[in-house]
């Protein structure tokens, strides 16, 4: 089995594991990110992550924590296949000879290149996911476009294609998506490789156990979010913004307005659930990827 096919298969399995483990945390993150700023003297819709969990389960049942999972589940194969395959092909280009290990800095370059490629899949997928996840948080916002009730991923996609500029509408938030995925994946794969080499005591990491792979993957995922989280907040608010009466004129405008109205803490709404999610989700992803790839010979 060729390296490309191995990366395609292993990336798909890793992505599925990441999605199942991490999606409920992601739902709470998006709800906290997208809830409207409260009026003066009034409390926010959600007091915090646990309050968002309680309100979601009370209103929608446990299934509410998995809302919006259809869109990324439908594309998880393509997303992770592209991520790990592009990274694998870049690794092959940078190797001095077949099988030679790469340095941490070379893995950073590979991660950045993979981030560019996956952005074109991530943007429309996350727009649909965020619209579904944010419905309840935006229900009282008074904005008809974003507060309307969608029946599922295809309903959101059809609405955007019909009423928000066609295919171009599905790529709303592409700039912050690139600004998240490129540096984020550079950090993710760089930290992952650095930790593997540290635990292995050298560049040969082939003998590392599953526990070590989980630690490296989990901490790599945490580093991703630590590095790019404010960009993710900007992406989310732009993607759920009203098409006809937008609150934000673009990424820079959204960044400035959030900072002006809420301070730095506004750029970290939902940070807790994101960090809690990142470690187990990425640990599951990298473990599933490495084990699957190893089993393929």
UniProtKB/TrEMBL annotation:
GO terms for cellular component: mitochondrial membrane. One of its GO terms (molecular function) is L-ornithine transmembrane transporter activity. It is found in: Mitochondrion membrane. Keywords: Membrane, Mitochondrion, Repeat, Transmembrane, Transmembrane helix, Transport. It holds the Pfam family Mito_carr. PROSITE patterns: SOLCAR. Gene3D superfamilies: Mitochondrial carrier domain (1.50.40.10). Its main location: mitochondrion. GO terms for biological process: mitochondrial L-ornithine transmembrane transport. Solcar repeats lie at residues 2-93, 102-198, 208-295. Belongs to the mitochondrial carrier (TC 2.A.29) family. This is Mitochondrial carnitine/acylcarnitine carrier-like protein.
């Amino acid at each position: 089995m060729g390296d490309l096919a191995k990366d395609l298969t292993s990336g798909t399995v890793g992505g599925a594991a990441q999605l199942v483990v991490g999606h409920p945390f992601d739902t709470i993150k998006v709800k906290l990110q997208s809830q409207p700023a409260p009026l003066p003297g009034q409390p926010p819709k959600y007091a915090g992550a646990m309050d968002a969990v309680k309100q979601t389960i009370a209103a929608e049942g446990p299934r509410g924590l998995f809302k919006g999972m259809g869109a990324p589940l439908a594309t998880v194969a393509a997303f992770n296949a592209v991520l790990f395959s592009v990274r694998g092909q870049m690794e092959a280009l940078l190797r001095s000879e077949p099988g030679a290990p790469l340095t941490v800095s070379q893995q950073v370059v590979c991660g950045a290149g993979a981030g560019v490629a996956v952005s074109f899949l991530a943007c429309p997928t996350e727009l649909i996911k965020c619209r579904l996840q944010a419905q309840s948080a935006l229900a009282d916002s008074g904005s008809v476009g974003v507060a309307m009730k969608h029946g599922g991923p295809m309903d959101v996609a059809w609405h955007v294609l019909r009423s928000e500029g066609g295919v171009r509408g599905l790529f709303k938030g592409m700039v912050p998506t690139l600004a998240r995925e490129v540096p984020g994946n550079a950090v993710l794969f760089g930290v992952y490789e650095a930790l593997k080499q540290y635990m292995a005591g050298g560049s040969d990491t082939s003998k590392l156990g599953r526990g070590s792979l989980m630690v490296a993957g989990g901490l790599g995922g945490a580093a991703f979010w630590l590095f790019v989280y404010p960009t993710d907040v900007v992406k989310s608010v732009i993607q759920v913004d009203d098409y006809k009466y937008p609150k934000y004129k673009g990424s820079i405008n959204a960044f400035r307005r959030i900072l002006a109205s809420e301070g730095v803490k506004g750029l970290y709404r939902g940070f807790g659930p994101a960090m809690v999610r990142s470690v187990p989700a990425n640990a599951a992803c990298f473990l599933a990827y490495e084990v699957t790839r190893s089993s393929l010979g």
